[in-house]
Specification:
single chain; Rossmann fold; 2 domains; ten-stranded mixed beta sheet; six-stranded parallel beta sheet; about 15% strand; binds ligand CRA
Length: about 800
């Protein structure tokens, strides 16, 4: 963008308020101020955006398209201002006319089109792609409702719709009706032989959906590059309106882009989800192929200009859909279409949990996407034929796409692509050795690792202005554009004035969070206590319950001996449970009741506080992460593919309390064993239990009185109002043999927590570790991660 002055900004800002809302600056609402600023930002980048679009076409740049069912950007105002290099100028200009930029920031609603780490990672990549100058665009769905809004009522999670999208649309998007395409679902299809021997698909009774793209700006950091996140919305096609005569029919169409993850416990819900996936994939790919066609290059070489990334299994239909478009719409023969498709496609696996690897019932698949069903059947048939006689038939049976009337989407993505990556070193190893080992036998060359990363500007400069200013003072401003310069802090670890400056920044951030807690929950938090934080989706493998068990132990210790010396602790939780995940919801109830129990017990003398923060989302994370002293990353080893909040916490000067799981291992390698606190079984120990079937939680319970006392607290009335939930949890731990090994890891966990309490008393040594963590956090930048994708997988830079 061109050079901007404060005066120019103020003038256009006021004029825009007049044009859009017919108000003077001093009458406008925060929402009006916010939208006006957003609109100006879009105007500032418009020429860069257009230039970007044109140069990709003109220079025929190879482009990557990142297909993801989730994107979780949170708020965009600050990121956009920062990346444009006008944050300070705009903040000052607004202050000059009595507008507080923070009020505008508050007015923006979180764009929460995702669930957790998967979607947030996609958004970090959207920030990093233009920043490294790579032609990489997102493709997703413009859900009208984001992930549910969580309220806690009587300790229970209640889910409310998250109507994030204002009726005028998001200020960051541009609707592009002229780029709309039609997507066909349902009906039947047969192949009619043509004179030249080719088979032409003839469709009957199909339903047509009109897919309209909304392009959301993605601004690179200080480099004039603007990319696109293309989100698809559904509309009723006027041409086919007779297909949808009743209101119910129409509503059903509109619902396709209403919700992220519709409840899929019924067949109807599953159908909706399958339609969503196909809708996004088909609309995206039709447009991509059409713009490639404009280059007048051979269709069978589309891989030279286009890379398509399948982020987790949800967009895996990209493989057969590209085949369909190439063959049916552009007349490419099967073998050529297959060869290029495999080179276009790549896939990231984000989890070892088998329930998350999607499988579709063949009947449903055939009903909704009959042509795709045919193509998948053919891919599967050819795969079996190709490998027959070359490898053990068992391997073929277990790696083929269609098995027992189910379509295995991960298998489709692996077979139909050229790259499969895991998201942390350990995770990739586990894919190779265990989860996908038979694919590794067939395609060893496809496997690679890309450890996750985070958009460091958001998680430092935006989320933690206090720390950022301190870093400027200590090591200069270079770190703002080159995060690796944080390593300059290595020279300052033991300097006591530096240590106390970091301490003061942390205390100020803790105060800010404490103010929020006071305002929202009316609980007073002592900021000299250790702020011990576990924020992430609620899942049994993440073991929020292990944290709870430790809190119970501390409570019992304090009750038994009220004079006990203990470093005061504040335990902070934030977590959403999937609506149908009963156990997770019980854990939320337990945490809330435990919080009520300890927070109002004056005999504990403020040594123990527990808070559950409602509606954890990106914005809340930006408040919580900078205020944490301890980052809880305590999943059962081998289960957390990577984790990304672990990286955010370390960058903001929290010490990590962790199992050797996911990216925790790489954090340990980065900071050294003395600067992280590791406990519990490693992956080999966990796997040894799986192999030997020798785990016995009841034996631990029977033989360890401390554990017995803690576990019994779930059922002996210690925690009020949790009769039902307490029994459910007790049963999971004892009657059902504690699937995630909480009991085995408990003793070590509690000991390491005691070590942390002692360490915190030694401020110098604590702060040296804190600074060491910040100094080494640069390697988890998503700019670097995405550079790996761009070079090794997509070949776009
Ligand atoms: N839940 C993993 O569990 C990982 C993110 C991003 C997850 C995390 O450990 O950091 O992906 N997996 O790679 C997932 O969504 C479907 O699988 C996650 O967010």
């Amino acid at each position: 963008m061109e050079q901007l002055t404060k005066e120019q900004f103020i003038k256009t800002f006021k004029a825009q308020l007049h044009t859009d809302y017919l108000v003077d600056n001093n009458e406008a609402t925060a929402e009006e101020h916010f939208r006006t600023l957003g609109k100006l930002i879009k105007q500032y980048v418009m020429s860069d955006w257009l230039r970007r679009r044109d140069e990709i076409v003109k220079e025929q740049k190879k482009t990557a398209y990142y297909f993801s069912i989730e994107f979780l950007p949170g708020k965009m105002l600050q990121t956009n201002l920062l990346n444009l290099g006008i944050y300070d100028l705009v903040a000052e200009a607004l202050a000059d006319i009595n507008v507080d930029i923070n009020v505008l920031v508050e007015a923006e609603r979180d764009m929460a089109l995702g669930n957790g780490g998967l979607g947030r990672l996609a958004s970090c990549f959207m920030d990093s792609l233009p920043t490294i100058g790579a032609p990489g665009f997102g493709n997703g769905i413009r859900y009208k409702y984001g992930l549910f809004k969580q309220r806690i009522v009587n300790g229970y999670q209640v889910e409310l719709p998250d109507a994030w999208l204002p009726s005028e649309g998001s200020v960051w998007e541009t609707k592009k009706p002229h780029s709309a395409v039609d997507v066909k679902i349902y009906g039947s299809v047969y192949l009619a032989p043509q004179e030249d021997g080719a088979l032409k698909p003839i469709y009957e009774n199909v339903k047509t959906l009109h897919a309209v793209p909304y392009d959301v700006i993605q601004i690179g950091f200080n480099n004039g590059v603007v990319n696109n996140l293309r989100l698809w919305d559904v509309e009723l096609p006027e041409k086919y309106e007779l297909d949808y005569q009743t209101l119910a029919d129409r509503r059903r169409v509109e619902d396709i882009t209403s919700f992220l993850y519709p409840d899929d416990s019924s067949r109807d819900g599953q159908a909706m989800r399958l339609i969503q996936e196909y809708f996004m994939v088909s609309a995206g790919l039709q447009t991509i192929v059409a713009s490639y066609a404009k280059m007048h290059l051979p269709m069978a070489k589309i891989h030279e200009k286009v890379a398509v990334h399948i982020n987790d299994t949800h967009p895996a239909m990209a493989v057969p859909e590209l085949m369909r478009i190439l063959m049916d719409d552009y007349g490419v023969k099967w073998d050529d279409a297959w060869a290029t498709t495999c080179k276009v496609m790549s896939y990231t696996n984000h989890t070892v949990l088998s329930e998350a690897l999607e499988k579709w019932d063949t009947g449903l698949f055939k009903e909704i996407v009959p042509r795709i069903h045919q193509i998948v059947g053919e891919i599967d048939r050819k795969f079996v034929k190709e490998w027959a006689g070359k490898v053990d038939t068992g391997i073929i049976d277990r790696t083929r796409i269609v098995q027992n009337n189910q379509i295995h989407m991960a298998n489709l993505a692996i077979i139909g692509g050229h790259s499969v990556n895991g998201v942390a070193k350990l995770h990739t190893e586990l894919l190779i050795e265990d989860v996908l080992k038979e694919f590794y036998v067939l395609f060893p060359e496809k496997f690679n690792n890309k450890t996750n990363g985070i958009a460091q500007r958001r998680w430092s400069q935006i989320a933690n202005p206090g720390m950022s200013a301190l870093l400027d003072d200590l090591i200069g401003k270079g770190w703002r554009s080159n995060i690796h310069e944080l390593s300059k802090l290595e020279a300052l670890l033991t300097e006591s004035d530096v240590q106390s400056s970091f301490y003061q920044v942390k205390q100020a951030n803790k105060q800010k969070l404490a103010d929020y807690v006071k305002k929202t929950l009316d609980i007073d938090l002592p900021i000299d206590a250790i702020f011990d934080v576990q924020v992430k989706r609620l899942h049994a493998y993440k073991r929020q319950l292990l944290n709870v068990m430790h809190i119970i132990k501390l409570y019992q210790d304090l009750k038994a001996d009220p004079g006990l010396e203990m470093t005061p602790r504040v335990f902070i939780f934030g977590a959403k449970a999937a609506p149908g995940y009963h156990f997770a919801k019980s854990v939320i109830k337990i945490i809330n009741e435990l919080a009520n129990l300890v927070n109002y017990d004056t005999s504990l003398n403020d040594k123990l506080k527990v808070v559950f923060l409602e509606n954890y989302n990106v914005s809340l994370a930006e408040l919580i992460v900078p205020a944490a002293d301890v980052s809880e990353q305590i999943s059962t080893a081998g289960k957390e593919a990577s984790g990304t909040s672990n990286m955010k916490f370390m960058m903001n000067g929290a010490l990590t309390l962790a199992t050797l799981d996911g990216a925790n291992i790489e954090i340990k390698d980065a900071v050294g064993e003395d600067n992280i606190v590791i406990f519990g079984m490693d992956k080999d120990a966990v796997y040894a239990h799986y192999d030997k079937h020798d785990y016995n939680s009841r034996a631990i319970y029977d033989s360890d009185p401390i554990i017995k006392r803690v576990v019994d607290a779930f059922i002996d009335g210690t925690i009020p109002n949790t009769h039902y939930e307490g029994h459910e949890i007790w049963d999971a731990l004892i009657s059902y043999n504690d699937e995630y090994f909480l009991l085995e890891d408990f003793t070590d966990y509690a000991e390491k927590q005691a070590y942390i309490s002692a360490l915190y008393q030694d401020k110098n040594s604590w702060q040296a570790k804190v600074i060491k963590n910040i100094a080494n956090s640069g390697r988890f930048s998503s700019d670097d991660t995405i550079e790996g994708y761009a070079k090794d997988i997509w070949g776009i830079i």
